[in-house]
Target: Carnitine O-palmitoyltransferase
Amino acid sequence: MAEAHQAVAFQFTITPEGIDLQLSHEALRQVYLSGLRSWKKRIVRLKNNVITGVYPASPSSWLFVVIAILATMYTRSDPSMGLIAKIQEHLPASGSMSMQCQTVVSAVLFSTLLWLSLIFTMKLCLKQLLSYHRWMFEQHGNVSTTTKVWVMLVRIFSGRQPLLYSYQGSLPNLPVPAIKDTVKRYLESVRPLKSDSEFERMTNLAKEFEDSLGSRLQWYLKLKALWASNYVSDWWEEYIYLRGRGPIMVNSNYYGMDFLYVTPTPIQAARAGNTLHAVLMYRRRLNKEEIKPSRIPGTFIPLCAAQCERIFNTTRIPGEETGNVHMRTHAHTVYTPFTGTHTHTHTVIIPWAKARKEFFSSGVNKRSLDCIEKAAFFVTLDDDEQGMMGDDPAANVDRYAKSLLHGKCYDRWFDKSFSVVIFKNGKNGLNAEHSWADAPIVSHMWEYALATDSFQLGYNEEGHCKGDVNPSLPQPQRLTWDIPKQCQEQVAQCLAVAQPLADDIDFHVFAFRDFGKGSIKKIKMSPDGFIQLALQLAFYRDRGMFCLTYEASMTRLFREGRTETVRSCSSESCAFIKAFENGEDVEVCRRLIRNASEKHQMLYRLAMTGAGIDRHLFCLYVVSKYLGIESPFLKEALSEPWRLSTSQTPFQQLELFDFVNHPDYITCGGGFGPVADDGYGVSYSLIGEKIISFHVSSKHSCPDTDSHKFGTQIRKALHDLLQLMTINQSDAAGSEQNHSSKTQNKKEL
Model:
């Protein structure tokens, strides 16, 4: 700890001759270097703030404007139309300067004001340009003239070599949709899930809400949208994440995996060293803002980077009513080898908040807890071996996923922004807390860490880290704790809650390698839409029904945007699945599946451009609670269970990996726990052109769910849909006969 280093650096003893100072030169050198690094960071941060602040212009453009104005004045022209003379009249120290000096100073001041005005105008123009989203709804190869002109203008106003946060001031604010549009889209989304009488009742509730309370609540949201950067994100973080009182383990946190088929080294310490080195390299690039701004894949359209600010040195602090997310600047990491019991009590929020206040608010416990909460991130040296190994590699991958999600319930620090886990056999992974950011932010960092670990840092022939040991590095400091009996009892009680929750999770992880997005694009379908339809078909075959489906989309086209829900179960998808399962004509099924895919794409685009359903309804509900007004429509709409919760983890940095020469160096993505007790959680990743990875979760306690069975249904649905879209006309009769046979078999069953 810091106190220990200071004690080593400075010691004194009192002798008869006086006070004898004993200074450690090496320790003082480390103090000096630490201070030097701190000042370098401040200078870099100041420089980046200036560059970002004037973007899309550059600081050097100020000099260009000044020279241009002075050159124009030299030709006895007045580009300021008298403003330079006015500035000259009001110079406070005009009496001590010559007339020529006054003129130059006035011209420089005018040039600076003109430069700032131009920057403001360029930012405003770029913001307006980035508010245009019609391009997203146009067909490929059929781009309008308006969009072509827009593309040209965006390129002109976007500047060059942007830093990570350069676009933040130019991103538009998230718009508030019209009440009637949100209500209409909501009713469309639930129509295939409700009977005629249920839908009529819900329609009446929606109309009553739209005609009465809705406009009042909408007024407050529009007022907030004018005042705040984002009318959703702060309430979403507080009420969805921080005010939740249940365990965040399994219910909120998620995980990311290592390479599936390769472990770069079997030596745990070496893998830990390289992994931490790679993560800290990413942290350095992040602090210098050298990471390129994220963009919509295949375009130059920037995405909000606000969530990147809290990747490191961030901790969720529990409270009895609501928690907080604290970001603290510090330079160390905390690692723990777990071979016995641990004092981690914050699996369940309320007991952890009370225990933290009672047992960890002072003394040695507070100092040790501060070290963890101020750390860049948390590291677990796990004493288990995990990964695709042994006689049953598939089952071991499932256990690997469970270990990353919840471990032994006491060997992960679930409140940290993320915890890196290094297993005994060199396999690694991470567990991430969800309130501060969404999965693409963590995934971007983890992709960099995996690629840097294996392809840049590497290992020697014995599996050890390359390079020489630095003997001047400070030794790790053991954290000490004073855990009284009452605290130990609370730990045991929390573990008694957490262990059954962890044991109840049923995981199935697999890499689907029969085909990937390359084959899907050949049939001219959206890969994401294709997979979502396969999931709908798999669920229908598994449960014999349709369900409300959650697919996470992002709203990072807007400032401080996070996520929106795509309600993937639509009337169009249900119509296709019913026709397909009932053995309808192949051409009919093809037409219906394309309608369903196009509908899904439309829903996804609406969600991305701020015209989704659920975040708007959520914020209207929050306003109603602030006003103390009950809305039967909002209460029922927001209480419907998501029995199928899905999310695509995007692969963002393909340039870091070489799937041709190193095809086994692929990560299987990550996953999360089920949202509903009787439902499934499905995370998937499109890896290269030929692989789709799936992480399926459910609960053993539900007799209607089985992750492995559902995984089998997903595989079959993928094959069936691709076969439908690739079958030639000569095989159509045979396909129709197969459909008829399936229908007859169902009737017999």
